[in-house]
Automatic annotation (TrEMBL), chain A:
Matches recorded under InterPro entries: P-loop_NTPase, Rab_GTPases_membrane_traffic, Small_GTP-bd, Small_GTPase
Principal cellular location given in the protein's record: membrane
Family in the record: Belongs to the small GTPase superfamily. Rab family.
Protein name per the record: Ras-related protein Rab-11B
Keyword Metal-binding assigned: no
GO molecular function: GTP binding; GTPase activity
Source organism: Biomphalaria pfeifferi
From TrEMBL, chain B:
Superkingdom per UniProt: Eukaryota
ANK repeats, residue ranges: 709-741, 742-774
Entry protein name: Arf-GAP with coiled-coil, ANK repeat and PH domain-containing protein 2-like isoform X1
Keyword Zinc applies: yes
Annotated Low complexity bias: 381-391
Ranges for domain Arf-GAP: 404-532
Keyword Repeat: yes
Record domain PH: where: 269-364
Assigned keywords, A-Z: ANK repeat, Coiled coil, Metal-binding, Repeat, Zinc, Zinc-finger
Residue runs in coiled coils: 14-48
Bias kind Basic and acidic residues: ranges: 370-380
């Protein structure tokens, strides 16, 4: 996994953002190396990892940027949002404050990232059932209102980690590949139709994620 | 006379009298209640009137306000403005309001007051009389009863009762008469009194309307008719205009607007503007519609609603226009610059052609402009023409003005206004490793020697790294020529002139820089100076607002204060003077000084002759009297002149411990004065002119100081935090891969010191970040341990970028772009706002 396979059809840059301690780095290590570390340290600056997956017979290489959640460990530049086509906005389902701060992170994305960036809201640490502070429905409604995809994951027991990354990469792939196909025929009103394709896709995924996490 | 009570009946006190009296009383009651009601209604009316008056005056204020809004609108005739009409109307209305207020006042006074008086005084009086009458009537009845009860047997008692009765009867008669009188008076009075009251109110009304009529008659005859006429005229004009505008719709149908809207500027291709679809450079590659225009040799665009312009290409001269290779859309063209490519799409083939030809036209126009302005410039004399032609050529646009600022900054450095080698006016080229400006001919010769000897850039056309500019600002032609033309011997090569031929020029430049034929050798060791020491003056940067003239009094006193300035940069009032002094002090002239002990003598060009006199204890390199250049009498804005004071503080704190002297490096024996150590010490003092002098004396930029952990000059420069010193060494072939005794590279050192700007600088120059020191640590290990987020980010990004490059050059991979963005961010911060990089 995550080894260097230079052959790929698409390279997507995805950023992981969210408050300190919500488990961004462990989501990344679970996805790219199938590792989990209970005592991982704060991320300093930014870290990267890559992994390739198959979608529709195409190889998609995900270059995932794991950013520091803690303010004093964040680099002074906001340039690392540039070029990102996807963002996993992570909160901790057992810490309500991390969920409240999602708005702040959305604002940060809006300020610095591409306006078409695909955003997925990720409630991590779903294994902490007895400590749950953020109801699934509340988060899902919030995601719907803001046109975000939504999923709950647990990097600790691996629940939904694969799906989360797969879903967002598939969504990006759909948009990018659709765009390439659709480019020539109806180019008159492309801006508005772009917006639609992005908003339609998440509802698909929501159906899937529902099945997966509420079993 | 209905209710008037008869006096005869009154005396009889007959039932008829009593009945009529009661009638009259009821009548008065009825009158009183009506009057009461009327007074109340009148008060209500007055209240309502007041409210109306308030509301109306509010309205008048509103009309006046509207008049202000119409301040500029004129009607048909120029002197009749909408605003004056409105304020006249408002005036009339406020006059009317005044009349109205008077009317209300009169209503109050005539009706309320009079009627109230009637009720309070007249009716009350009758009522009081009535009470008295009733009492007397009762008394009389009592007298009758007593009289009737008087027994026959008691004649005296009968007599008495009789007397009382008689008295009572007469009293009653009087009282009842009086009462009847009162009633009758009231009855008659009510008629005229009330009527009179109403009459006076009617008069008030009459006056009110009369006044109003007068007012409006005047207004109408003098004004309103005129305005009505104008209004009519205006509305008919408006109708015509509307018709004309409506007809434009038919124009649309007649011809397609698409192209006619594109070309404004009367067919002037150089001012083309219009909508184009722009392909985003992100992975989505989606198209967005933007308003593009060509202006001042730039291609800029903006959104329809947002107001800021984005510069797509800031110098069209560097761009080419061609058919795109990989677009499946129609009507596309590609704008290709050295670093980027933009795909743009027009709405039709015709428009696409128009844009392509417009862009090509403005490219060639931009070239002509430059040539033209350069010619003009050459003819004119220095400063003034420089500015005007600059503004012709480089209008106030972001990048262009950057080039302009750069030019201004560079040319004001002493000596830079003339070519360093032949003295030609207005040099437009530079050699960044030597820190000089050159004319185009000499720059050609420099280029010919290869980039390892001279790195040539165009001041106006090339994009400059901020660090290169810093290096340039630290040196300058005067400084360089004092080193490289110290002892000119024209037998070796004839001096180049602006008009000399290429051979002369080439041999002069070769002798000057590459044979170093004219430099002065460093003083050798001789017996007279073994006891003496040398040191290098620590440099501070050129200030951003220099006031050269203020420092024109050179001499010991000034220098004394200069010595004390380093620590008190901001507090010391004289600091501004000193900044200027520092600026002058860029010469690598050796001079001798030591605050009190040493003679405050400076040695122009060479200190060595003076050393023999033995009255000085040492030499300070790079410390010399301020040098003044004629014509530099304006205060300059050296936008990015150098690292901030913060950095300086940082440096000072490092150096104090190391060298023990705040202003110079540690004192060395003259026996150790060799070019290598001089370069090393000058690097530690970030003194570029002295570094240059050392290099001119063949110092090895990668010399290893075995006495200090095997460090190289660049490691010393790292300690000062100076981007310019590091850049200067790198430009002069210093290597980043050298390790000191502890196995640390310059990148290690910069990371340990937390010098983000230098880490960025070294990574841009491909410093090896995998190098391990003797403890097996890479710079990244150190940065993570120090939790320095910015340096960690830079190191990891650089690593990612390397990996992306290795894994087969996939075009446009996001790592690469972000790498450039982030490094540009940090470079700009380090050069322009280094304080931003200071955290914690």
């Amino acid at each position: 996994m995550g080894t260097k396979d230079d052959e790929y059809d698409y390279l997507f840059k995805v950023v992981l953002i969210g408050d300190s301690g919500v488990g961004k780095s462990n989501l990344l290590s679970r996805f790219t190396r199938n590792e989990f570390n209970l005592e991982s340290k704060s991320t300093i600056g930014v870290e990267f990892a890559t992994r390739s997956i198959q979608v529709d017979g195409k190889t998609i290489k995900a270059q995932i940027w794991d950013t520091a959640g803690q303010e004093r460990y964040r680099a002074i530049t906001s340039a690392y949002y540039r070029g990102a086509v996807g963002a996993l906005l992570v909160y901790d389902i057992a810490k309500h404050l991390t969920y409240e701060n999602v708005e702040r992170w959305l604002r940060e994305l809006r300020d610095h990232a591409d306006q078409n960036i695909v955003i997925m809201l990720v409630g991590n640490k779903s294994d902490l059932r007895h400590l749950r502070a953020v109801p699934t429905d509340e988060a899902r409604n919030f995601a719907e209102r803001n046109n975000l995809s939504f999923i709950e994951t647990s990097a600790l027991d691996s629940t939904n980690v694969e799906s989360a990354f797969h879903n967002i990469l598939t969504e990006i792939y759909k948009i990018v590949s659709q765009k390439q196909i659709r480019d020539s025929p109806d180019d008159d009103n492309s801006p508005s139709s772009n917006v639609q394709t992005i908003t339609v896709a998440p509802t698909d995924l929501k159906g899937q994620s529902k099945k997966q996490c509420c079993s | 006379m209905k209710h008037t009570v008869d006096f005869k009946e009154c005396l009889k006190d007959s039932p008829k009298f009593r009945a009529s009296l009661e009638d009259a009383e009821n009548d008065i009651e009825a009158l009183e209640s009506r009057l009461d009601k009327l007074v109340k209604q009148c008060t209500a009316m007055i209240e309502a009137g007041k409210m109306f008056s308030n509301a109306s005056s509010g309205f008048v204020v509103g009309v006046r306000d509207l008049a202000n809004y119409f301040n500029d609108d004129t009607l048909v005739s120029d002197n009749a403005k909408v605003s004056t009409s409105l304020s006249r109307f408002a005036h009339a209305m406020s006059e009317m309001l005044k009349y109205f207020n008077i009317l209300m006042d009169q209503a109050h006074r005539s009706i309320c007051k009079n009627l109230n008086n009637f009720i309070r005084i007249d009716i009350k009086k009758v009522k009081e009389t009535k009470k008295l009458f009733e009492k007397i009537s009762d008394d009389m009845d009592a007298a009758y009863i007593r009289n009737s009860q008087a027994p026959k047997s008691k004649p005296q008692e009968c007599e008495e009762a009789n007397n009382t009765l008689t008295a009572m009867r007469s009293c009653f008669a009087h009282t009842s008469l009086d009462y009847v009188f009162q009633v009758n008076v009231l009855n008659s009075k009510k008629r005229f009194d009330i009527l009179d009251t109403m009459l006076s109110f009617m008069h008030a009304q009459n006056t009110f309307f009369h006044q109003g009529h007068d007012l409006f008659r005047d207004l109408e005859t003098t004004y309103m008719k005129d305005i009505a006429g104008q209004v009519e005229e205006l509305s008919s004009k408006a109708k015509i205009e509307r018709k004309e505008m409506e007809e434009r719709h038919t124009l649309v149908q007649q011809k397609d607007l698409s192209t006619s809207s594109l070309l404004q500027g009367d067919g002037n291709l150089l001012q083309t503007e219009g909508y184009l679809f722009k392909r985003n450079s992100n992975a989505f590659k989606n198209y967005v519609r933007r308003w593009f225009c060509i202006q001042d040799s730039q291609l800029v665009y903006r959104k329809r609603t947002k107001d800021t312009l984005t510069v797509m290409e800031d110098d069209l001269r560097l761009c080419t226009i061609r058919q795109p290779v990989d677009s499946d859309r129609r009507f596309c063209f590609e704008v290709l610059s050295p670093t980027r490519s933009h795909i743009l799409q027009a709405d039709s083939d015709e428009e696409c052609q128009l844009w392509v030809s417009a862009l090509n036209a403005s490219i060639s126009h931009a070239y002509k402009e430059t040539m033209h302005s350069q010619e003009v410039e050459n003819k004119r004399s220095s400063t003034s023409s420089k500015e005007s032609s600059q503004s012709d050529m480089l209008p106030a646009e972001p990048k262009q003005s950057k080039a302009k600022i750069r030019m201004e900054q560079l040319l004001t450095i002493p000596g830079n206004s003339h070519c360093c080698d032949c003295g030609a006016n207005e040099p437009r080229w530079a050699s960044i490793n030597l820190g000089i400006t050159l004319c185009i001919e000499c720059s050609g010769i420099h280029r010919g020697f290869g980039v390892h000897l001279s790195k040539v850039r165009s001041i106006t056309l090339d994009t400059w790294e901020p660090e290169h500019l810093k290096v340039m600002l630290e040196i300058g032609n005067d400084v360089v020529n004092r080193i490289y033309e110290a002892e000119v011997d024209e037998t070796i090569a004839a001096r180049a002139t602006p008009d000399c031929n290429r051979t002369v020029r080439e041999s002069w430049i070769r002798a000057k820089y590459f044979q170093r034929a004219f430099i002065k050798k460093l003083p050798g060791v001789n017996k007279s100076n073994v006891s003496r020491k040398w040191s290098v003056r620590k440099k501070t940067r050129r200030s951003s607002s220099q006031s050269f003239l203020k420092t024109s009094r050179s001499g010991g006193e000034l220098k004394d204060s200069a010595w004390s300035r380093n620590r008190v940069v901001s507090e010391d009032l004289s600091s501004e003077l000193l900044e200027g002094g520092e600026t002058g002090a860029t010469g690598a002239v050796l001079s001798v000084s030591n605050a009190t002990l040493m003679e405050k003598r400076s040695f122009k060009n060479n200190a060595r002759e003076e050393q023999a006199s033995g009255d000085v204890a040492g030499i300070v390199f790079g410390d010399d009297p301020p040098l003044f250049v004629a014509g530099l009498n304006k205060s300059l804005d050296l936008e990015s002149s150098d690292e901030s004071l913060h950095e300086y503080d940082d440096e000072a704190s490092i150096n104090v411990g190391v060298d023990g002297d705040d202003f110079t490096t540690s004192w060395e024996d003259m026996s150790k004065l060799d070019p290598n150590l001089l370069l090393y010490k000058a690097s530690a003092a970030r003194n570029l002119p002295v570094m240059l002098e050392a290099l001119a004396n063949s110092a090895d930029p990668n010399w290893v100081n075995l006495e200090e952990d095997g460090k190289t000059p660049i490691m010393k420069a790292v300690q000062t935090g100076s981007l310019a010193a590091c850049e200067f060494l790198l430009l002069n072939n210093a290597k980043l891969d050298r390790k000191d005794k502890n196995g640390k590279t310059a990148l290690h050192h910069a990371t340990i010191l937390g010098h983000t700007g230098q880490v960025c600088q070294f990574l841009k120059r491909r410093a090896d970040q995998n190098a391990k020191d003797n403890q097996g640590q890479t710079p990244l290990d150190i940065a993570v341990a120090n939790a320095n987020a910015d340096i960690v980010t830079l190191l990891r990004l650089a690593k990612l970028n390397d990996e992306m490059k290795e894994s087969d050059g996939y075009l446009g991979n996001p790592g690469d772009e972000t790498f450039q963005d982030v490094f540009r961010d940090f470079t700009n911060m380090a050069s322009n706002n280094p304080e931003k990089l200071k955290r914690k």
